[in-house]
Structure formats: C-alpha cells, structure tokens
C-alpha cells in the first residue's frame, strides 16, 4: 500500500516578471499569502522583493507543492525585509 505524504502549497515560482521587474525575479521562489478574493479574480498574493505582500496575476507564477517537513524548513529559513 502506498501512503501519500501530506503536502502543502505555500510557495510559487515566478515565471514572468515582464510588468513587474523591480518587484519580481524570474525563477525565484516566493511565499504565498492566502487571499481568497484575489484568487477568485485570478490573482495571487505573494511576498515580493520589497518584503511586503502584494497581488500579482496568478499566471506569472507556477505554484509548487512541497512535503510538509520541507515547508517547515523553508519557513524557518525564509528571511523577510
């Protein structure tokens, strides 16, 4: 029997920064901030290069899913401005 380890979606990789080059770096992993209203509108709230959370088009990101223990390690090492 294969058991599935729990995973979560708290991070996204920027795949397009064409309209926000000062705020986003292509291929960088960004932390997602839950925002149901933004998600309904096709947006994603992330902590950008300023260290603040802002709304960006969701299609600028590839949401990545990590195992729970990996997310804990990422959150511990995540530095904000």
Description:
This protein is α+β, with helices and mostly antiparallel strands. Helices cover 19% and strands 35% of the residues. The protein contains two helices and five strands; from the N terminus they run E-E-H-E-E-E-H. It has a three-stranded antiparallel sheet with strand order 2-1-5. The protein has a two-stranded antiparallel sheet with strand order 3-4. Strand 3 and strand 4 form a beta hairpin. The longest helix has 10 residues, at 68-77. It is globular and about 35 Å long.
Order of helices and strands: EEHEEEH
* Quaternary structure type: single chain
In round numbers, the mean pLDDT is: 85
Question: Approximately how much helix is present in the residues?
Answer: 10-25%
Count of distinct strands: 5
Q: What is the structural class? A: alpha+beta
Q: Tell me the fraction of residues in β-strands, as a range.
A: 25-35%
Total DSSP helices = 2
Uncertain segments are none
């Amino acid at each position: 029997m294969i058991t599935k380890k729990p995973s979560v979606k708290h991070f996204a990789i920027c795949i397009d920064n064409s309209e926000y080059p000062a705020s986003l770096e292509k291929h960088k992993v960004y932390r997602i901030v839950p925002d149901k209203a933004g998600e309904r509108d096709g947006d994603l709230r992330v902590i950008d290069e300023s260290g603040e959370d802002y709304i960006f088009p969701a299609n600028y990101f590839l949401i990545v899913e990590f195992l729970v223990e990996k997310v804990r390690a990422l959150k511990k090492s995540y530095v904000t401005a």
